[in-house]
Write a structure and sequence with these properties.
This protein has helices at 2-11, 16-29, 34-46, 50-70, 81-92, 96-109, 114-123. The chain is mostly helical.
Length: 145
């Protein structure tokens, strides 16, 4: 409950410090849970601590991969949010090529995620579809929406 409420507050821009305390408590009570470490990264990101956030997101991803391996499953679309978070921290740190690579990995897991696709398009220079990992033959050249 600590993590869920803290994360919800952060996502809605509410009670940042209290959310951080709740998420830290969740991590103390259940250390090494990917979702909780991701939430801690989000707290650091919202607080402007981008380097620490990036580390937390990368740790959360490694934990998630371990959790998946232990349960003989693969990451699902909802899990790719950790990679999106990591990409956003990389963007804040000016690590655009790393952010592109991270978003490409996320989109392999969640190809229908329009938020991640738009973010990738925003950070990829125009006319550089290959940098974003897209197949130029299938990349849209105009938008109808």
């Amino acid at each position: 409950i600590y993590n869920h409420l803290g994360y919800a507050w952060l996502e809605n821009g509410l009670y940042t410090e209290q959310a951080g305390e709740m998420i830290k408590r969740a991590n103390e009570l259940a250390p090494g849970v990917a979702a909780y470490v991701d939430s801690l990264g989000l707290f650091h990101h919202v607080s402007g601590e981008y380097t620490l956030a990036e580390r937390q997101f990368e740790q959360a991803w490694e934990l998630l991969l371990s959790e998946c391996a232990e349960n003989a499953v693969t990451p699902v679309a909802a899990d790719a949010i950790i990679l999106e978070h990591a990409a956003r921290a990389k963007i804040a740190l000016g690590k655009i090529p790393d952010a592109v690579e991270t978003l490409r990995k996320a989109l392999q897991i969640a190809p229908a995620n329009s938020v991640m696709q738009r973010l990738l398009e925003e950070i990829t220079p125009p006319g550089n579809a290959r940098a974003a990992g897209e197949n130029p033959a299938t990349t849209k050249t105009s938008r109808s929406d």
